[in-house]
């Protein structure tokens, strides 16, 4: 908390208490002086803030509080001045608390940024600034350390807390050779890693840039609130001046001034918006500013890419077609055992599928690989060949019938002991969470979902029909994706989700572009307005609900708060609300509005 604001609040409290206690000590004459002095000290600080805001071209609503305290002192009402000073100082403290509470989640991301790392130099460990780290450097990550840059584990294994990046509370285990992202915290024993990116290009550096942009951007509602604030100031001064001219009662005028509470405008809107952004960030959706949240809250349409968003973005085992008596599980085990010797992405998918099923893999021998075609070798004393249809047929010297298979599905033929035994089917499979995520998006208010992909139309139709999407467009070039986004915007506020370089123009063209940041390209992340730090569309649905709720709470706070403030001012003008009561009511409205805005955090 700001020590100056704490000091002002202490002065206001002490002045009011000492003034009330003065008669008990026989110092009746000093009472008004004490109240006046405390109010004057707060007024000096208040005037300095007003001058500072005017110098920045901002018409601060602190002018209302300044007028209230000044008028009370001029008209010889030191108690009213002291009460207003206390309410002002207390309100500023409350404002700072609310703003800090709303920003806590995003500020926590910035606070985690590591400054140094332990690097191996000539066999010795040396602490260096992370800016000095270059790809290829070997680093030691100790228990409790924040991973400083993106890299691969070169020795040991890691248990990583990814909550700051993805919102996941369950730690992630990464084995030797696995990838680790900067920003994760090591929870287990120390491990060595090899840097793959410099600090400025690593995952967490991108997150930090997004957070800094988000904290500096004003939402349209906030800018609208600034304009309304000027209107509120004019109405307050006009009503107070009209009351004085109409009644010649300076106390009524004072009551109008102290009853005016601009907090619903100057504080409730940004607190609700920032709270919503913080909550979304906790769940892995990072928005680049308040305007993104407010626009997202009004979205009714969604254009989405296929590869890497609805699907995993790489070939996965989707089926096994036996052509002999060999069991499917044994086919997969033998193929995966041989594929361990290959670095091909298809090989990795087959090995992963076997391990997911708990199969025991054997060590392959005499392996020979033909790049891009397949490999052969021995597994458990049997000859095994796996690869493309023509590759396996050529090795066997026999024709192999190619079975019918869905569009977009690849075939990996398998031969064991010189006999063709069947095919493994591989395809870019739909993510397990995709159907539930799309249902959640529709429940959150998305009425129309368009699949826009560069893949062949037959593949797009199959996936789009399976998922029940409204429009399915395949074979698209980047400019054609842009055209689709622009056409959808004519139907309402439209979101675009993508992860590749070819999605960047469409992301920039959408009302809100959202990049799948964990695996997506840097170009997509830079063009987007928001980034999903975890590859899970259900987080987008959560973010959409959060955005709608934060905007609704902001509007609710403004309408109710301003309504109560105007009612209090009218009551004061008619003589039904005394000065001190008006000041207390003003603070009560401030507290209620701020607490209501903080509901967006829950």
Write structural notes for this entry.
With 602 residues, the chain is α+β, with helices and mostly antiparallel strands. It has 21 helices and 22 strands. It has a 7-stranded mixed β-sheet, with helices on both faces. Strands 2-1-3-9-4-7 form a 6-stranded antiparallel β-sheet, with no helix packed on it. Strands 12-17-16-15-14-13 form a 6-stranded antiparallel β-sheet. It starts with a helix and ends in a 5-residue tail after the last helix. The mean pLDDT is 83.
Q: What fraction of the residues are assigned to beta strands by DSSP? A: 15-25%
Distance between the termini: 23 Å
Low-confidence stretches: none
The number of helical elements comes to 21
Major β-sheet annotation? 7 strands, mixed
Strand order, sheet with most strands: 10-22-21-20-11-18-19
Determine the mean pLDDT.
Answer: 83
Shape: elongated
Number of strands: 22
Structural class: alpha+beta
Gyration radius, in Å: 33 Å
What oligomeric state best describes the polypeptide chains here? single chain
Q: Helical amount among residues, as a percent range?
A: 40-55%
């Amino acid at each position: 908390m700001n020590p100056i604001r704490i000091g002002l609040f202490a002065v206001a409290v002490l002045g009011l208490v000492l003034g009330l206690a003065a008669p008990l000590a026989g110092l009746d004459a000093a009472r008004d002086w004490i109240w006046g002095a405390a109010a004057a000290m707060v007024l000096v600080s208040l005037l300095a803030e007003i001058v500072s805001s005017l110098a920045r071209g901002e018409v601060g609503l602190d002018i209302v509080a300044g007028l209230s305290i000044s008028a009370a002192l001029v008209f010889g009402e030191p108690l009213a001045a002291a009460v207003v000073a206390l309410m002002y100082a207390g309100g500023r403290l409350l404002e700072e608390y609310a703003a800090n509470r709303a920003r806590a989640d995003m500020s926590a991301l910035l606070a985690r940024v590591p400054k140094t790392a332990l690097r191996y130099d000539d066999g010795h460990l040396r602490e260096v600034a992370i800016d000095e780290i270059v790809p290829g450097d070997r680093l030691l990550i100790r228990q409790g350390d924040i991973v400083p840059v993106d890299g691969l584990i070169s020795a040991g294994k890691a248990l990583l807390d990814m909550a700051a990046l993805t919102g996941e509370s369950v730690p992630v285990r990464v084995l030797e050779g696995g990838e680790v992202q900067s920003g994760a915290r090591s929870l287990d024993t120390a491990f060595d890693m090899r840097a793959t990116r410099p600090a400025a290009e690593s995952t967490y550096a991108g997150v930090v840039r997004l957070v800094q942009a988000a904290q500096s951007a004003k939402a349209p509602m906030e800018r609208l609130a600034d304009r309304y604030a000027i209107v509120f100031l004019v109405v307050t001064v006009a009503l107070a001046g009209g009351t004085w001219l109409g009644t010649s009662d300076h106390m009524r005028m004072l009551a109008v001034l102290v009853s005016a509470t601009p907090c619903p405008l100057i504080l409730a809107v940004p607190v609700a918006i920032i709270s919503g952004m913080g909550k979304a960030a906790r769940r892995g959706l990072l928005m680049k500013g308040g305007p993104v949240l407010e626009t997202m809250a009004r979205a009714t349409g969604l254009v989405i890419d296929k590869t890497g968003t609805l699907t995993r973005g790489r070939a996965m085992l989707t089926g096994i077609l036996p052509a002999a008596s060999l069991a499917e599980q044994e086919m997969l085990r033998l193929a995966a055992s041989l594929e361990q010797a290959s670095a091909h992405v298809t090989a990795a998918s087959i090995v992963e599928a076997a391990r997911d099923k708990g199969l025991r893999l054997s060590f392959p021998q005499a392996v020979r690989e033909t790049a891009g075609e397949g490999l052969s070798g021995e597994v458990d004393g049997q000859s095994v060949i796996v690869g493309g249809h023509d590759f396996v047929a050529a090795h066997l010297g026999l024709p192999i019938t190619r079975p019918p298979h869905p569009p977009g599905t690849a075939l990996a033929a398998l031969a064991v002991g010189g006999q063709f035994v069947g095919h493994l089917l591989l395809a870019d499979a739909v993510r397990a969470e995709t159907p539930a995520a799309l249902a959640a998006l529709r429940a959150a208010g998305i009425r129309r979902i368009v699949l826009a992909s560069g893949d062949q139309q037959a593949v797009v139709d199959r996936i789009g029909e399976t998922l029940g999407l409204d429009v399915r467009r395949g074979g698209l070039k980047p400019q054609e994706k842009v055209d689709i986004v622009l056409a959808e915007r004519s139907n309402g506020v439209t979101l675009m989700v993508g992860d590749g370089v070819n999605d960047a123009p469409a992301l920039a063209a959408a009302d809100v572009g959202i990049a799948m940041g964990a695996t997506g390209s840097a170009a997509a992340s830079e063009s987007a307005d928001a980034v999903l730090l975890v590859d899970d569309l259900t987080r987008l649905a959560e973010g959409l609900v959060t955005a709608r709720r934060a905007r609704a709470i902001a509007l609710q706070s403004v309408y109710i708060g301003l309504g109560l403030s105007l009612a209090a001012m009218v009551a004061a003008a008619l003589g039904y609300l005394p000065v001190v009561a008006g000041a207390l009511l003003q603070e009560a409205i401030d507290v209620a509005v701020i607490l209501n805005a903080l509901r967006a955090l829950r």
